[in-house]
């Protein structure tokens, strides 16, 4: 019926010819509404894209190749294909590289940099380390190894860090000041931070004793990143040791090649060539123990390779640091279950301890029997 009314309306209003009506009425119904909305959205997005088009920065062809290039896989089978040299003279590329001890590498560098040869007997000695970044799972790696280490025989400091110590005991406050803290106290320091008298912009680290943590929690919004935390090493029981580490410690940080997650590289200065072998060994021990804290000891040593090099010389000797690694010993009375870091710990029960609850239960049963 509706179609007939529309046909009559066309014949009355608009003239017709042999080929059909001159005009046609377009009825906009909701049948194709979603198509119109989609087309409108597409036009708006295209218009916005045209407006946001920016000029492309020209990149040289060789630089573009380097950016798009994938890192080459490490040749893990290379040491297996080489053998140990049997003679005194050999071609280095066909045999294993010689691994020296720390004292042997130092003697080689001292001989080369002697005043009668290269004349640089006080050159800085550096370690070039390759770090193992793998964790408990194959898909998890350390993103970065960064921290502070307190060297027993460090050079004179060129940069100073500001440290604030919060502790209740007066003796701890005096020890913190002697260790290098700028300000040490308890309620007076907390009040000064709240009132703005002690500005955190000029403070690098805030260390806190465990007993003062409850009073320090209200400063969380003011301290922000400087809030004491056990993971950062700014919360503990020995305030003087924490202050000494953050005030006089030497910074170290690792770097990674683009796209490489299995290992990282790090260079660290362990002393000068005029130091004794014992001083070098003490500094290397402190560094290796500090690096080992970034990775569980049960996964093996964190250092894959170590090389010793000296400024003013191109010689580089591979050294063995296995004797400096901390040993992972089982904790007293605790056995680990599972492979994860958060695995529960079970206490080891000795036979004497196993019999003790039974004896206590028998004594309690005897007391109840006599009472009845």
UniProtKB/TrEMBL annotation:
Record's signal peptide: none
Keywords noted in UniProt: Ribonucleoprotein, Ribosomal protein
Family assignment from sequence similarity: Belongs to the universal ribosomal protein uL1 family.
InterPro entries: Ribosomal_uL1-like (IPR023674), Ribosomal_uL1/biogenesis (IPR028364), Ribosomal_uL1_3-a/b-sand (IPR016095)
Annotated source species: Hypsibius exemplaris (Freshwater tardigrade)
Gene3D superfamilies in the cross-refs: 3.30.190.20, 3.40.50.790
Upper taxonomic lineage: Eukaryota, Metazoa, Ecdysozoa, Tardigrada, Eutardigrada
Name of the protein described by the UniProt record: 39S ribosomal protein L1, mitochondrial
Record-level GO cellular component terms: ribonucleoprotein complex; ribosome
Region (Disordered) location: 323-372
Presence of keyword Ribonucleoprotein: yes
Protein origin, superkingdom: Eukaryota
Keyword Lyase applies: no
TM region(s), chain numbering: none
Residue ranges, compositional bias (Basic and acidic residues): 355-372
């Amino acid at each position: 019926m509706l179609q007939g009314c529309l046909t009559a309306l066309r014949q009355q209003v608009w003239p017709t010819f042999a080929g059909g009506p001159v005009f046609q009425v377009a009825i906009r119904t909701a049948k194709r509404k979603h198509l119109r909305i989609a087309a409108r959205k597409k036009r708006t997005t295209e218009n916005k894209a045209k407006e946001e088009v920016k000029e492309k920065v020209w990149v040289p062809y060789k630089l573009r190749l380097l950016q798009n290039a994938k890192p080459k896989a490490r040749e893990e089978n290379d040491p297996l294909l080489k053998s140990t040299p049997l003679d005194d003279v050999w071609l280095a590329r066909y045999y294993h590289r010689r691994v020296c001890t720390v004292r042997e590498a130092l003697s080689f560098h001292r001989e080369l940099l002697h005043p009668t040869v290269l004349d640089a007997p006080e050159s800085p000695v550096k370690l070039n380390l390759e770090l193992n970044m793998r964790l408990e799972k194959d898909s998890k790696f350390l993103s970065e190894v960064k921290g502070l280490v307190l060297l027993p025989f460090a050079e004179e400091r060129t940069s100073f860090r500001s440290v604030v110590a919060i502790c209740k005991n007066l003796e701890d406050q005096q020890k913190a000041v002697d260790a290098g803290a700028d300000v040490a106290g308890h309620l007076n320091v907390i009040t000064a931070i709240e009132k703005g008298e002690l500005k955190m912009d000029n403070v690098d680290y805030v260390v806190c004793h465990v007993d003062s943590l409850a009073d320090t929690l209200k400063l969380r919004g003011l301290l922000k990143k400087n809030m004491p935390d056990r993971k950062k090493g700014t919360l503990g029981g020995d305030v003087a040791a924490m202050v000494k580490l953050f005030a006089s410690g030497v910074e170290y940080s690792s770097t990674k090649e683009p796209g490489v997650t299995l290992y990282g590289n790090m260079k660290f200065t362990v002393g000068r060539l005029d130091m004794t072998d014992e001083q070098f060994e003490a500094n290397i021990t402190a560094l290796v123990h500090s690096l080992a804290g970034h990775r569980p000891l049960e996964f093996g040593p964190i250092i894959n390779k170590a090389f010793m090099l000296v400024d003013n010389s191109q010689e580089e000797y591979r050294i063995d640091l296995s004797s400096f690694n901390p040993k992972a010993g089982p904790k007293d009375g605790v056995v680990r279950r599972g492979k994860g870091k958060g695995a529960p710990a079970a206490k080891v029960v000795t036979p004497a301890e196993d019999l003790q609850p039974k004896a206590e239960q028998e004594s309690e049963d005897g007391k109840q029997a006599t009472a009845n």
